Each structure stands twice: as structure tokens, then as C-alpha cells.
């Protein structure tokens, strides 16, 4: 989260004074306003505001009909929640390599597709857009669902279209560490009516049929799911945060471009699938060796990080996945289900060597949208000094 202030406080006070904190109400209807704004900003027909990005991913997979006996391709570099959402649906995550953009490799997707593959989850990690043109072509050729994990890329785009709205469905995250935030929150985006109906039921099956007219006109019958329903307090904050989104992105992109332009020819950055759509949160410097990368990261004023060190974002540190512990009750564990007995991969720490190699030779520096020219010029000089 980059910006928060009195506007969010004022909106919270309005909700508290109205005393309608439940999502469905006849008062301020903050949750409905969030979904209306998401629809407008993302040009999306059916958004659902819920508790987290993981909730959105899981709800989307269930709504796509994915479950035991199915495989879902995920990148080796993403937060563990991406793979855990697949397991939560009862399916098996198939871990694929990333390419030089640090996003899911279209070439490795082709290598990992089997007759059990039902979906691909491209992850726009660090706000870097995946190659959605290539991924959509592969998916369409193989009759696969595409679920975009845009949880680190709120508002980004590829080819002029917002991330999360290119595939069959997309997930956003609004937790504390994201571009915009309400503490914890997320959203599912889709233009597919069937996915929307199933996801809405799954994410709030205990209440969606009993409050308001949420299921009016549905062709989908109710079924048992979970409770990922948000509330009016989170929605109040989110309504203000959504109004800040494009301004934050514009400043992030402006500051990132300023630094990159002043370092042109001096260093190497990772390639981008769409630099205009990149969220601008992160400078990613590329080096020939890990030793060079670590020397740069620890140089004075740099405060850089290597993505290989980011723990649960690298597949070999997804301990419950790697050790095939998909649920507390073994009968509920997809890795032990009869339907999955022939498709569970032999996970091991060196299974994606290209990913490990690439992540060990990149250094991240965070971009601050609030930095002025003086701060940016100082940062540029520190980078130049560290590179010498």
C-alpha cells in the first residue's frame, strides 16, 4: 500500500455512523459500490469483492469446474497461495519454468500440458505482465481455462487491457502489501456468467441465497462452499483506494521510467512483455552471475533483494506443496485422492533449474511513487556508483 489518509477515515466514519456493517444493506452499500467501481475501472462485467486474492483464485477454479483428476499449470515463481488455491479445489499443481521476464514461460507451458490439464494460471509477479498473447493462444489451442493471478499487479495491463480481464477470470489482492489495500481483501473478475454465478455461490454459500436478491436470475443451483464475504468497513477503505489507483500507477511508472532512462546503456534490466502496462513497482536489474547480483544488492544506498531469497515465492520453499500435504484430513488431501493417483508429480527442489538460475541473477529495487526528482537523482547516482 502506498497512500492512505483522511479520505479513508472519513468514509469509515460514515459507515460506522450508519451502523450498517454487513455487505447487504439498504444504506451506503459500500460493497456494491466497490464492485461497481471494479466493473468500471477494469471494464469487467462480473466482479466479486471478497476477503483475499487466494479466495478469488480458489473461487474461480471451483467455478471453472476444476477438481480431483485435473492438473493446473502454475509458475515456479509465485507466492505459495497460487499453488495452494489449486490444491484447495482438489486439483494438482503442475509447476512450470519462468522465462527472462520472470513470468510463466509459454514454451514450458507447452511442455507441461497433458490430457489432465484443465487450466493455466499466469502470475503477473511484481507487476510484470505475462505474455498473455502467447498464453491465450496456447490455452485456446488446447481448450484450457486461463485464470490470471494479478494479485501483485492491481491495475496493470497487457496490450491496453487490464490484467485479470484477459483470461476467463482473474484475481486481485488488496492486502497490506499490495498497490492498493484495505488491510485484507481481494476480487474476482470475469465476463463469464457461469463462472460468476458459481463463484458467487462458492465464496458465500451460507448467505448468498438468504440476503438480498443476489441469486435472482441465476441458472446455477446453490451448493456448499466457503465464506469469503467481505464487509462494509473494508469496502469503505477500498472505495477510496480504488479512486487512488490510476494516480499511484502513473507516478510509479513515471518514476521507474525516469530511473531507467537515466541508466540507459549503463546496466541491464530484465525484458518486459509490456513495459507500458508494467505496474512500475519494481526495478529489476539483470546480472551475469549471482556474485555480481549480491555485490550490487548490498552496495551502499541500494537496499536491493534477490528474488531467489524471497522464501515462499520460490517453489522449492512451498513446503506443504513439495511435501504433498494438501489437507489436515488425509481423505480431503488431493495428493492422496484416488482420482489424482496417476497425476501427482514427483516434486523436488531442482525440478525448475532455469527458474532458480534466473532468480539468482536479478536484483530488485522498489519504486516509491512519492519520490521527487531530487530523491530519484540521488538514487540514480547511488546505482551508478554501485555498478562501478
Summarize the helix and strand pattern as letters: HHEHEHEHEHEEEEEHHEHHHEH
Number of helical regions: 12
Give the full name of the CATH homologous superfamily of the domain at 6-242: Type I PLP-dependent aspartate aminotransferase-like (Major domain)
- Strand order, largest beta sheet: 1-9-8-5-4-2-3
Uncertain runs are none
Rg, alpha carbons: 21 Å
Number of E-type strands: 11
Proportion of beta-strand residues: 5-15%
Tell me the name of the CATH class of the domain at 6-242.
Alpha Beta
CATH architecture level-2 label of the domain at 6-242: 3-Layer(aba) Sandwich
User: Which sheet architecture does the biggest sheet show?
Assistant: 7 strands, mixed
Structural class: alpha/beta
Span of the ends, CA to CA = 33 Å
CATH overall fold name of the domain at 6-242: Aspartate Aminotransferase, domain 2
User: What characteristic shape results from the CA principal axes?
Assistant: globular
Averaging pLDDT over every residue, what do you get? Answer: 97
Provide structural commentary.
This protein has 388 residues and is of the alpha/beta class. The chain contains 12 helices and 11 strands. The protein has a domain at 6-242: 3-Layer(aba) Sandwich (Aspartate Aminotransferase, domain 2). 36% of the residues lie in helices and 12% in strands. The strands form 3 sheets. Strands 1-9-8-5-4-2-3 form a 7-stranded mixed sheet, with helices on both faces. A two-stranded antiparallel ribbon has the order 6-7. It has a two-stranded antiparallel sheet with strand order 10-11. α3 (53-63) crosses α7. The longest helix has 31 residues, at 232-262. The chain is globular.
Amino acid at each position: 500500500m502506498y497512500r492512505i489518509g483522511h479520505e479513508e477515515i472519513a468514509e469509515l466514519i460514515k459507515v460506522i455512523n450508519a451502523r450498517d456493517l454487513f455487505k447487504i444493506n439498504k444504506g451506503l452499500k459500500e460493497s456494491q459500490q466497490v464492485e461497481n467501481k471494479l466493473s468500471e475501472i477494469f471494464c469487467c462485467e462480473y466482479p466479486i469483492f471478497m476477503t483475499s486474492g487466494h479466495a478469488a483464485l480458489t473461487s474461480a477454479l471451483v467455478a471453472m469446474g476444476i477438481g480431483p483428476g485435473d492438473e493446473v499449470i502454475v509458475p515456479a515463481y509465485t507466492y505459495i497461495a497460487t499453488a495452494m488455491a489449486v490444491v484447495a479445489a482438489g486439483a494438482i499443481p503442475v509447476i512450470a519454468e519462468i522465462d527472462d521476464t520472470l513470468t510463466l514461460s509459454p514454451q514450458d507451458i507447452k511442455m507441461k500440458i497433458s490430457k489432465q490439464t484443465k487450466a493455466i494460471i499466469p502470475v503477473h509477479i511484481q507487476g510484470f505482465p505475462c505474455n498473455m498473447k502467447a498464453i491465450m493462444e496456447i490455452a485456446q489451442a488446447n481448450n484450457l481455462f486461463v485464470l490470471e493471478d494479478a494479485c501483485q499487479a492491481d491495475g496493470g495491463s497487457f496490450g491496453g487491457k487490464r490484467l485479470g480481464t484477459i483470461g476467463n477470470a482473474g484475481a486481485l489482492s488488496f492486502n497490506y502489501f499490495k498497490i492498493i489495500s484495505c488491510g485484507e481483501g481481494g476480487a474476482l473478475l470475469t465476463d463469464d456468467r457461469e463462472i460468476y454465478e458459481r463463484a458467487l455461490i462458492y465464496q458465500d454459500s451460507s448467505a448468498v441465497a438468504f440476503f438480498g436478491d443476489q441469486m435472482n436470475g441465476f441458472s446455477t443451483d446453490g451448493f456448499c462452499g466457503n465464506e469469503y464475504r467481505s464487509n462494509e468497513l473494508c469496502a469503505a477503505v477500498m472505495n477510496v483506494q480504488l479512486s487512488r489507483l490510476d494516480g499511484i500507477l502513473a507516478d510509479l511508472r513515471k518514476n521507474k521510467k525516469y530511473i531507467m532512462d537515466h541508466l540507459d546503456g549503463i546496466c541491464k534490466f530484465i525484458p518486459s512483455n509490456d513495459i507500458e502496462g508494467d505496474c512500475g513497482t519494481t526495478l529489476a536489474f539483470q546480472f551475469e552471475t549471482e556474485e555480481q547480483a549480491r555485490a550490487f544488492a548490498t552496495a551502499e544506498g541500494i537496499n536491493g533483494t534477490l528474488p531467489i531469497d524471497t522464501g515462499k515465492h520460490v517453489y522449492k520453499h512451498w513446503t506443504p506443496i513439495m511435501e504433498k500435504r494438501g489437507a489436515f484430513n488425509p481423505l480431503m488431501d488431493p495428493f492422496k485422492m484416488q482420482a489424482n493417483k496417476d497425476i501427482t508429480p514427483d516434486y523436488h527442489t531442482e525440478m525448475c533449474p532455469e527458474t532458480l538460475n534466473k532468480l539468482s541473477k536479478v536484483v530488485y529495487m522498489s519504486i516509491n511513487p512519492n519520490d521527487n526528482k531530487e530523491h530519484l537523482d540521488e538514487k540514480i547516482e547511488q546505482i551508478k556508483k554501485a555498478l562501478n
